[in-house]
Design goal:
mainly alpha
Length: about 400
């Protein structure tokens, strides 16, 4: 993407220069023609290209960015604003450089006759399959504004759940970091001072003190690189193993069986499945296609495999609840509620109710987990500091005995 400068004339007859980011001068002209009465000569601005490229490389389209865009886009479409013009207006005010570039490109492609969903599909870094298929369903049914509003609600719910988990875990993570820094500071700077005093007095050091002095020596020498390199290598191997089908299945299976966190991970996956599936079916996306889209949002391979196996049963005429029940990964309550939704013909509404229930369960589980972690971390910090202080004071007793 480059920055272009063009002379334009607005509806009041005023002539001025307008800057625009686009892939080419032709694309810039197409976008500007939709905004202004006349567009003159277009030149490339050489000074700002590097800054734009740097900003673009650092930008990341968040769930919140897409939620805000979807809600604003829905309101404008519902108000009768042409899609091309709405995209241009939203691109101008988009705070995210990557989203801004995508909207400008999409606007130019739609102006050339491409459908909105096809244009969005060319920008997967901003609009994933879930977004594209819902927009496609909205275009086909003539209810694009309603679908965009559902998308914004869906994305806002997903963002709220993520923020709930992040905010709940912020305290224990912060305490853990400060505890680690305190341990390193006391071990690297405090223990050697006491070690020098004990050595000058010729005191006999107990095992705990010798152990802490050894740890201090390791942290202050090149040997500290050994655990760092070892941790880096293990992390790299785990990431590489996770990229393999078997490794991903094994690690995700372990994530569902972890003490304390396993039940939480299962509830998050179930809530996400039901929320996305309910929104898709309510927007008019075919059920079998919903399964393919949902699999990209679940985030756990064990549950993804179960959903795909259930899809195979449904293709043969089975019910969704029975197909999912056979896989034995969804909670019984969720299966019963989905079954009721199928029997009453309100599957999309029941899916969203299941999602609401399990999102509340996730919030309560996170609060319970953090309330449990806080005293554990306090005890751990007290044990750590107590161990360091005890290792420093134990030799003093033998010194006092020698003086006596």
């Amino acid at each position: 993407m480059s920055i272009f400068v063009a002379k334009v004339k607005d509806h009041s007859g005023k002539v001025f220069k307008e800057k625009i980011e686009a892939a080419s001068a032709e694309q810039a002209r197409l976008v500007l023609k939709n905004r202004y009465v006349a567009v003159g000569k277009i030149d490339k601005s050489g000074f700002e290209i590097d800054l734009s490229a740097l900003e673009l490389a650092l930008a990341k389209v968040t769930v919140k960015d897409k939620a805000v865009f979807s809600r604003q886009f829905s309101v404008m479409v519902n108000a009768g604003v042409a899609i091309i013009r709405a995209l241009g207006i939203l691109a101008d005010q988009a705070p995210n450089a990557k989203l801004k570039r995508a909207l400008l490109a999409i606007s130019a492609e739609v102006q050339q006759g491409t459908s909105l969903s096809d244009a969005m599909s060319k920008h997967p870094e901003c609009f994933n399959d879930l977004y594209v298929y819902m927009v496609e369903a909205g275009e086909a049914g003539g209810v694009l504004d309603e679908v965009l509003m559902r998308l914004s609600t869906l994305l806002e719910d997903m963002a709220a759940l993520q923020n709930e988990i992040k905010s709940a875990m912020a305290y224990p993570v912060t305490v853990g970091i400060f505890a680690l820094l305190a341990f390193l500071g006391m071990t690297i700077f405090l223990i050697p001072v006491f070690g020098g005093i004990f050595e000058s007095l010729g005191a006999e050091l107990p095992l705990l003190t010798r152990t802490m002095l050894t740890i201090s020596d390791i942290l202050r020498s090149w040997k500290v690189l050994i655990p760092i390199v070892g941790f880096t290598v293990i992390s790299f191997l785990l990431r590489t193993y996770y990229k393999t089908p078997w490794g991903r299945l094994q690690i995700d299976g372990f994530m569902l069986k972890m003490p304390l966190f396993g039940d939480l991970n299962e509830k998050i996956a179930v809530a996400r499945f039901c929320r996305v599936f309910g929104t898709l079916t309510r927007s008019g996306v075919p059920v079998l296609q919903c399964f393919d889209i949902v699999c990209n949002t679940i985030g756990n391979q064990v549950i993804v495999n179960a959903v795909m196996n259930a899809k195979a049963d449904i293709q043969q005429g089975g019910m969704i609840s029975l197909a999912i029940q056979k896989e034995n990964v969804f909670p019984p309550l969720a299966i019963q509620m989905i079954s009721i939704g199928e029997e009453t013909g309100e599957l999309d509404g029941m899916m969203e109710k299941v999602a609401d229930f399990y999102e509340d369960e996730v919030q309560q589980a996170v609060k319970a987990l953090t309330s449990m972690l806080e005293p554990i971390m306090m005890v751990g910090i007290a044990f750590m500091v107590g161990t360091i202080l005890l290792s420093m004071y134990l030799p003093m007793f033998s010194i006092f005995d020698q003086l006596a």
